[in-house]
Structures are given as structure tokens and as C-alpha cells.
Write a structure and sequence with these properties.
mainly alpha; Citrate Synthase, domain 1; Cytochrome p450-Terp, domain 2; 2 domains; three-stranded antiparallel β-sheet; 3 strands
Length: about 375
Amino acid sequence: MKTAEYSPGLEGIIAGTTTISHVNPDLCSLMYRGYDIRELVKHSSFEEVAYLLLKGKLPTQGEYDEFCALLKQERDLPDVLVDAFKTFPKNSVPMDMLRTGTALLALHDPDKDDNSHDANVRKAIRSIAKFPALIAYSYRINRGQEIVKPDNGLGHGENFLYMLQGKKPDAYMAHVFDCSLICYADHGFNASTFSSRVTVSTLSDIYSGLVAAIGTLKGPLHGGANEEAMKMLQEVGTPENAEAWVIDALATKKKIMGFGHREYKNGDPRAFILTEMGAEMSEKLGDTQWYKTASIVESVMHREKNIVPNVDFPTSYIYYLMGLPIEIYTPIFALARVSGWTAHMIEQLDNNRLIRPKALYEGPDHLDFVVRAQR
């Protein structure tokens, strides 16, 4: 018999305390260390936000320069990792390659078995720095392309686009991509973050927590939603088809990806930011099909179900307009969220208590055992 203590999916259950990010559904706001996401997108950079999440404060100019230099210093991968990518089956799923690459990366970290605060910060910086190469190298090698080495004259997100696409993005594209990374950097006790905290609460290492987080993020109900949202928009096709497609999808109970959020009922602040950017980018590129189609899907969903988009909906067509392959969208989520994951794992380990919730047992009790020959 269920009790009032049980909440399916742990919805509404407080599982810990944090000073890293604050999701406030009543105010439709997201704060990183007390700073509103809107202000960070407007005035900051992903590198500065990563510093904020890890260190708990905004950096001075000197601290920022030093942090960026550390990230650039750690960008490349050991040759043995690059060789390992060549052994992966062709057309491997990018999230699988990232998960495996992260596990292999742990073997080459000199601080792997040191769980002190300072060592964990060093591992966090290395992970943030190396995720772009893990994603870009494994993807290009797996698709039969030569790898593109990091360019230390480029910023973090800008350099990832260069390594993935083989050409330097223009300043505007780099800016929009950087803003998307800021929006994805952290989000409270979401599923992947919670799984990473559970993992390190056993006093396992940061890399084990990252592997757990990547595996959790892979699912379409979490990180994979941005990929599924773009596939859905491709199925819808044109603005002229959008309303009828949504009405039919609702009637046949088809899943409409990129809408709704357990935390936000009145709107995701990240979606508001990126929808505005998506409109501007569409106009700048002279390619408004996807934004217009998405806008109609959004308005019909609001009219029919009073459901609004989450962050994954606008990023789907923003990344598509950038020419990014759809199967790389979830790894990009990880590229940003590794900053939040590592910050949470450091926070967990700094004041650790094993995370071990109870379960409500609903099976039979006190059954009589019958020996095998008499069953």
C-alpha cells in the first residue's frame, strides 16, 4: 500500500542541499551561484561561467586569464586515446564514444585516485578542457575524417566548432553557441547530475561520476530530447504543415519532444533566451523555415495543451542552422554540463554522506518455501 512519503520519480522530494544552482519555477528563473542566467548570457562567457560553478565566485581578470590558459593547456588528448577511437565500430553512437572516451581518459589522469578538493578541481578543469576533443576527435575518426587539432587562439566553444567542422566559425555563430553552452551548464539536481552525485557519494572518483552522468544524459527523456526535437521538426517539414501535424500528433498521443519540464510549468527561462536567438539567427542566415515551423508548433501546443517549450526545443533548430549533425547535439549538452557535473561532485565530496534512499516494498511477504522436487 502506497504512503504519502512516496513520490514517483522522486518528484518534489528534497534529496540534498547545494549552493551551485537554483531553479525557481515560480519566478521562471535559473540562477548559477546567485547570478541570473539571463545576465550571464548577456555579459559573460562559458569559460567564466565554468569558473563560477567550480570556484563559487566570478573571477577577476587575472583569475579568468589563468583559468582560460589552463583550459587551453589541457585541450588535447593522449595519443593512445586517439588510437583507441580508431578501434570503435563504424557509425558508433557519439554518446557511447564519449562515455567510453571519458572512462579511458581516467586512466591517464595523474590525480585519478586523489579525492582531495584541490585534486578534484584539477580533474574538473581537465575534463571541461578535454570534452571538446573527446567529442570532435571520436566523431571525425569514426566517420573516416582526419582530426582537427585545437587552436589555442580560439575560445572554448569556438574551438569545439572548429575541431568538429574543420573551419573556424564566424563571430556571431561562436557567440550564439557560447550562449547555448551557458544555458546548458547546470540545472539543479537533474537526473544526470544526481546520478553523478550518487556515484561519488560512495567515495568513487570523479571520472566514474562522469561516466554515470553521460549514461544518464543519453536517454531521450533527458539530454537526447534536443536530437529528437529536431527529428520531429524535420518530420513536420514546413510551416504550412505544422498545425495539422501537431493536432494529429496530439490526437494519436504521439510524443512531442522539446515541450514540458518537471520544474518549469510556466516557461523555461533558457528556452526564452534561445528562442529569441533562434529568431535572430534565422533572419541573419535568410533561412526562416525551421524557426517559423517551430513557432507554429509552439503556439498550437500552448493553445491546445497549455504546454510551453523547454531548452531543448530552440537549441534543436539553432544547432541545425549551424550545420551541426543531429547525433552530436546530446554530446554538446555534455560538453556544457560537464562544468555543472564536476562542480556538484566536488560539492558532494567536500561534505560527503552516502546517498542511499529507502524503497517502498510492494511484493509478497512470508511465503512458505517449497523444495524444488515438490514444486
